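To whoever picks this up:

The parser on our side crashed when reading a file containing two proteins. I've narrowed it down to the boundary between the first structure block and the second sequence. Both blocks are reproduced below exactly, byte for byte. First block:
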Amino acid sequence: MRDFGMGKNVMEELVRTSLSDFLQHLDKLPDKENVDLYWPLQVVVANVINEVLFGYRFAYDDCKPLIDYVNRLNELNESNAENMGIAVGMALPALSKLPWIGWHIVGKIKHEMQQINQYVVDNVHRALKDYNIEDEPTCFVHAYKQKMADNENLDDVNLMATCCDFFLAGNETTSTTLRWAMLILAKHVEIQEKLRSEIHSVVGKDRLPIMADQVKMPFARACMLEVQRFANVLGMNVPRVAVNDVTIRDVFIPAGTWVNGDIHYVMENDPHFVNSDEFRPERYLNDDGETLRKDLVERTLPFSLGKRACAGESLARAELFLGLTSIVQHYRILPREGEAIDLEPAFVTTIILPKTQNFRLEKV
């Protein structure tokens, strides 16, 4: 994966190319007084991982397969949030083996995910249709297929599963975070103006930001950290299992116990985040206004910690920093005339979603 966008300069260029397409799309909108950014933000993020995995990007006026994928995934998340059987199944996993009960606890969800993931399966087949393994790979699917010839542990099943995991993980959380960022900056216009001033002083208006600009943009970095803290979209990450009996603060945890860190609670209730219900990027800056507070940065854990932290962290960080700064560089994001921004979550499932609200955009 590193050869096709994860952790290399290739990744940054893919993100910037996708953002360039996104900004051109905004420029062409006829009515900037009433702009719905939901689907444009979905596409700008999906196009990066889509190009890494499958070698192509969507046009903004021709992305129905992506729209269908996202809509079906949202419907499943909403259904799961109301399904008490899932919680029962996690507490009593033996029930999942029973015919009727097991279908409603696990089987139905697996079936629906298989239907949703058909999007990925179709794209894998499309990428491989005319590919010769003797040719130079142009995407992850090609590279994986080449490696299969030399590694018996790699097969088509694992290829499909890996692509499904990367597409899901590399899409929804990042686009949702950017949606939150747009709402927050529209709510706090003075912070948006300060951010824009820093962007223009460091980058100007004639080129898009690059990751190397970060060192000269402490307020932009602080804004991104505060967005991820204030509007953390994932309450918990993948659970761990205690491999040995252990006692922590007088609480005995036997071997085999599922353990999960409550990321959302930490970033909302850690006493180091004074007035944590307020959006204040400057909390991350030292008194000099130029350097970040290490103690707060280390407590901001949107990607979790350890070996099972988010595998796409470097890609997500690039998409978030470059996405936020590129949009603010070119557009002023404002509430619609006579309307106020609502920062209460719309829905809480595995992802904490913002309410869908339209914006007024002003070209800078």
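<<boundary where parser fails>>
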Amino acid sequence: MNTATVANRDKEIARQRVNQFVRRFEESYRLLAYHAALPLVLTPELLNYLRNQFLRGQVPWLAEVDLLLSDLCSPVGYELYAMDTAVRAYLLEEMHNDAALSSQRMQEVARLLLGYVRHLAQTNPFISKQELEAQQWAAMVYLDNQRENAVRQIVQAFQESRAIGGSRWQTEMARLSRITQELAPQLRAYPNLLEYAELITRFVTEPESVNPKAGTHTYSVLGENLDVPDEGVAEGTGLFPPLQVFEFEVVTVDRKGTIIDKTQEQGQYFREDLGNGVTLDMVAIPGGSFLMGSPETEEGCSDNESPQHPVTIPPFFMGKYPVTQAQWQAMANLPQVNKKLDPDPSRFKGSDRPVEQVSWYDCIEFCARLSQYTGRDYRLPSEAEWEYACRAGTTTPFHFGETITTDLANYNGNYTYGEEAQGKYLQQTTPVGSFQVANAFGLFDDMHGNVWEWCADHWHGSYEGAPSDGQAWLLNDNENENHYRLLRGGSWCSSPDYCRCAYRYGDSPVVRLAYNGFRVVCGAAWTL
């Protein structure tokens, strides 16, 4: 599929998503979506500001909440939302072509956004220089007298990123490339800058596809030269951590819990260096389709696990284990993005034990810090991604097979499932990977038991109307900030039926309990 075909396909999908959103509410919502598309990142405050300045009397205030919580936007931090790239590009093009608005309105929005950024710089000490910078560039490229200045600043930022010590220059180059590509429609007059950003992005996402000779080319933009860092070319992996192969054992059990098959498998992963000897292993999860939920014949099934429905999941990376206390502490010691983190919240202490007693909002902050630290987009998995990753191609209640045993996972063995015998009840968490068996994707035993794992979705009582594309399923109402969020997988104190692949549990996003933890995923989205 060539580039033009892909672009046309993405544009058509974006058009359908926008029209579906508008049909669900009313036509005036389209106007708000137009205006909200210009900033790279939205906050409730900014969206309210835009509506009051340009659409007061035309668009109801409830539209602000409906937009932020629709599938046009995704949460990227605490009260931070970003539009899908294709949706944003489509809305901006449509706004430009709208006879009632045209480029004049877009320039008015851009000027307002510039003023808003200056206001934030003076009044909000919690917003990073990088966030302000990106928002400023997003506005400047729409103003004829500011566009070239924005390009010069972007070029200078690329050049200065080489002076950053250690491996942090990689993070900054990735960030700048993503922003440049996001602003591509307004930067068509600077093809060398766009080609350079595209090359750097390929070093990030598909290093094996980059010809080493590409690293010798220099790109001239407004009289300044941009080249590919020698380090990226020499390593052959660019800005993306090298994928490594690892081996693991997969077991299958019958209804009595007897192991009936053992196989040695291989997977791929990359390793993040979090400093001070702490690392994070991210396993490559291949894309594919699966049947989400449980059949009515499955022991322990619930109405909220139905109806079963097909879901298609794009490829992504997922933590090999739940986030450990050592990994948590590494991020907790970094500057806050939106909220403070307790560096030692867990009841059951141990650097290699899963962190627990963390709220959903705490996990969002962890992901925001990790994203800022690495330059890659880290987030909580959607519920669909979690179940797909847990099943790893299986259709049984557990990825082990028809039942589960306390020789394979940490749960309350006083209770049984299927025809298994009673087992142990440890009454505490165990170090991640203690049982040394994994599913077919290479995710270890902790997918069943040990700690519940937070997901991005809001709680829904069934799968009626659930998305089929693997995205997080979020509510569209104005009272959802403390609405229950999803947890999956069961815990050390759960009965085995709660540990099934399909079992769903919801809780308040502010609770901190000794059996709730999380693991992270890394996708193709971007951060400022």
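After patching the parser it read the second block fine. The CA atoms of residues 357 and 512 lie 4 Å apart. The chain is about 35% helix and 15% strand.
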